[in-house]
Specification:
Elements lengths: L6 H88 L10 H11 L7 H27 L3 H31 L11 E6 L3 E7 L9 E4 L4 E4 L2 H4 L3 E8 L13 E14 L5 E3 L2 E3 L10 E2 L18 E6 L11 E6 L4 E3 L3 E7 L4 E6 L4 E7 L8 E8 L2 E7 L4 E6 L4 E5 L3 H6 L6 H11 L7 H4 L10 H14 L3 E4 L11 E8 L16 E6 L5 E5 L19 E2 L2 H6 L4 H9 L2 H16 L2 H5 L12 H4 L15 H20 L13 H15 L1
Antiparallel strand pairs: 1-2, 2-5, 3-4, 4-10, 5-6, 6-9, 6-15, 7-8, 10-14, 11-12, 11-15, 13-14, 16-17, 16-20, 17-18, 18-19, 20-21, 21-22, 22-23, 23-24
Helix pairs in contact: 3-4, 9-12, 15-16
């Protein structure tokens, strides 16, 4: 007979039985909750599926009703463009211009064969020919931009190839004329025993100086008409050298390139040094000169001396340049000057020192050891992040696009066929294009002034924390915004960056006061419009307040109102006057407004920075925004604030010390630096925590 269990054992068995029953009850409860949740989820999914089926049918009906309108609109745009093109062709014909129509490839090649004939023997003549070629380059650039706006990749590539071909012929012609002048330099020597000449045109300035006397006292070479002064180093003065200077109003090194983190603005100044041919000899009335077969040779002078790895040797005296910057160039408080790296196909600032800019005289002074294309440069994303943007109507077929960037506030006036820059003021644009320019050409011109609004998706990758949106989503949102801009004001939303790449959020409100500027801070008067691709391509009203800290995610069945087009979505809550303005707007005006909408509402603000005011770590300078993010180790999200601050301090010390050292020393220095020690200490602290 087994022993009788003790009281303690009975209590333990009773407790174990109670725990087992409690566990069974808990498991049954969880299973019941799971089944209820699955049933509820099936009900919600069924409701979502029914909603999607219903909305898909409504959207198809809406699109079918919109087909006739879109076809008539496309026909009207084509007719207006054809009429505008015919007027431009007739104007060109009546002006009796000798320049070709770049859209006619046969006419272009006929002109090119005549233009690329025997090079002129005078600097003024070749400068005039280069000026004519620059006008053709501008037309080719406009053609490439127009083809890109129409999404014609083959046409854009054709114009780009023609432009690059013409630029190569321009340099060959200038080199041939320079070589001829250097071979006959004794015919142009002045009373100071110098050869110096220059020629200025609206688009190209060319200057040439030949070191005839080899006088060590001659240090400064001035081209007053070009606004340029060169302080030559001793190595150039004591040798038989010639210095050629060419100033262009545009960036001919990278007219289409988007690679690299820097971009040029304010024009390009190309400084080149050549070796003089042996002096001519006259014997019995016959002048003998050294020349290569087929014409005189143009030999670059080996300056600066380069090492085996292609780097500039140390202690190389630089060339000091003083130049007048055009009035249209927007120069910041800390300007940078770069040189064109032909191997990397990008602008580089290595070797440029002592940069200073006088705002009153607009004189830029710097020292460079590179004799090549030089220009003012800035980060491609210097205008990011945007502080705010707003699009508001100004009247029939007129709208205003205001973008407050990190650099300046830009205001654009959009009319039926052109876009005009209102702020900041540009005297040259107002004089040359008082009625405005084509949207793509204006944005390219502003980029050459230092205001880059035509940002690409690759530029967003240069700014930490900004993620570009889907291109199809951007095109859909910008087209819809342009369609309601004649009667509604549209501005940014701080929730946009919280959405995935398939969602865009903006705020809209009816606007009938053409003279006033809408207050973007009053969130009660604005409606939040959500452009989304899932589950359908549509636009919907979202109840999230602008001041809310989180985004309100809605299931399809929870969306109160959704339409295929935003104009129909807002028709019920807006006055009839606003809707009538949108219906009466010119198709060409809506088409012209798409490009400014794409730059203001799509790329940098809606899809990149969402209109969030810039913080101190990303809006102070482009160099801070371009700090590389850590690759090997990152602090955990659940860790304390102290450890993250220690890690960030160590990382900044490490980056700072690497930037101060030469490139060969950066490989071993992180293991022995203060930044490395701080980084290692923060890792030990994280392990202990």
């Amino acid at each position: 007979m087994p022993p009788k269990p003790s009281k303690k054992q009975l209590e333990a068995e009773k407790k174990a039985e109670e725990e087992r029953l409690a566990a069974l009850a808990e498991a049954e409860r969880l299973e019941r909750l799971r089944l209820e949740k699955e049933a509820q989820e099936r009900q919600l999914q069924a409701a979502d599926d029914a909603w999607i089926v219903q909305k898909r049918t409504e959207f198809e009906t809406e699109e079918a009703d919109n087909v006739a309108f879109m076809s008539s609109r496309g026909a009207a745009i084509a007719a207006l463009r054809s009429s505008s093109r015919a007027q431009a062709e007739w104007k060109t014909f009546m002006s009796c211009s000798k320049l070709p129509d770049v859209s006619n490839q046969c006419a272009f090649y006929d002109w090119l064969s005549d233009w690329s004939g025997v090079p002129p023997l005078a600097l003024a003549d070749v400068a005039q020919q280069l000026n004519d070629a620059e006008c053709v380059c501008r037309d080719l650039l406009v053609g490439a931009i127009s083809a890109e706006e129409k999404q014609d990749e083959a046409g854009a590539e054709k114009y780009q190839n023609l432009l690059l071909q013409l630029q190569g012929l321009m340099r060959s012609k200038l080199n041939a004329t320079t070589a001829w002048l250097l071979l006959h330099y004794e015919l142009h020597v002045n009373l100071k025993n110098e050869m110096q000449m220059s020629s200025e045109t609206p688009n190209v300035d060319v200057g040439l100086w030949v070191n005839v006397a080899k006088n060590i006292r001659i240090k400064n070479v001035e081209f007053p008409s070009m606004g340029l002064t060169l302080e030559l180093p001793k190595q150039l003065i004591m040798n038989s050298t010639a210095v050629r200077v060419q100033r262009l109003r545009r960036d001919d090194c990278a007219p289409f390139a988007t690679g690299g983190s820097m971009q040029a603005f304010g024009g390009v100044c190309r400084i080149e040094v050549f070796t003089m041919a042996p002096q001519s000899k006259t014997l019995r009335g016959i002048t003998m000169r050294s020349s290569a077969v087929g014409g005189p040779a143009l030999l670059p002078f080996p300056y600066p001396p380069l090492g085996a790895d292609g780097s500039v040797q140390q202690n190389t005296p630089p060339l000091r340049v003083t130049m007048v910057v055009p009035e249209d160039a927007f120069v910041g408080p800390n300007p940078q000057v770069g040189w064109w790296h032909e191997g990397k196909k990008e602008w580089d600032t290595d070797g440029i020192t002592d940069v200073s800019f006088d705002t009153e005289t607009r004189r830029l002074t710097f020292a460079s050891v590179r004799m090549t294309a030089l220009s003012l440069v800035q980060s491609r994303v210097a205008s990011l992040p945007y502080k705010s943007w707003v699009i508001r109507p100004l009247g029939p077929n007129a709208a205003c696009v205001t973008v407050s960037t990190a650099v300046d506030t830009v205001e654009l006036r959009v009319s039926e066929s052109a876009v005009r820059l209102v702020a900041p003021v540009s005297a040259s644009l107002d004089a040359s294009h008082p009625q405005g320019m084509a949207p793509g050409l204006l944005l390219k011109t502003l980029q050459s002034f230092g205001l880059n609004l035509a940002l690409s998706s690759s530029d967003a990758l240069l700014v930490r924390g900004l993620v570009p949106k889907d291109k199809g989503m951007e095109a859909f949102a910008c087209k819809e915004i342009a369609n309601i801009a004649p009667g509604f004001a549209v501005t940014y939303s701080c929730h946009n960056q919280r959405l995935p790449d398939t969602g865009i959020a903006v705020r809209t409100r009816p606007w009938m006061d053409f003279s006033a500027h809408p207050d973007m801070e009053t969130s009660d008067a604005w409606q939040l419009v959500h452009f989304r691709m899932a589950p359908l391509l549509m636009c919907a009203i979202n109840p999230t307040a602008e001041a809310a800290e989180a985004w309100t995610e809605q299931r399809p069945a929870q969306i109160p109102s959704a339409c295929a087009h935003v104009s129909k979505l807002l028709s019920g809550s807006a006055p009839d006057t606003c809707q009538q303005r949108c219906d009466d707007a010119s198709p060409l005006f809506l088409e012209t407004l798409c490009a400014p909408c794409y730059c203001a509402a799509a790329r940098p603000c809606v899809t990149l920075c969402a209109g969030v005011p810039p913080c101190s770590c990303c809006a102070c300078s482009p160099s801070r925004r371009l700090l590389p993010s850590p690759r090997k180790w990152q602090p955990p999200r659940l860790q304390g604030r102290t450890c993250r601050r220690r890690w960030l301090t160590a990382r900044l010390w490490l980056l700072r010390e690497q930037a101060m050292l030469p490139l060969p020393l950066q490989k071993w220095w992180p293991h022995r630096s203060k930044g490395a020690r701080l980084l290692q200490r923060s890792r030990r602290h994280e392990m202990r925590a």
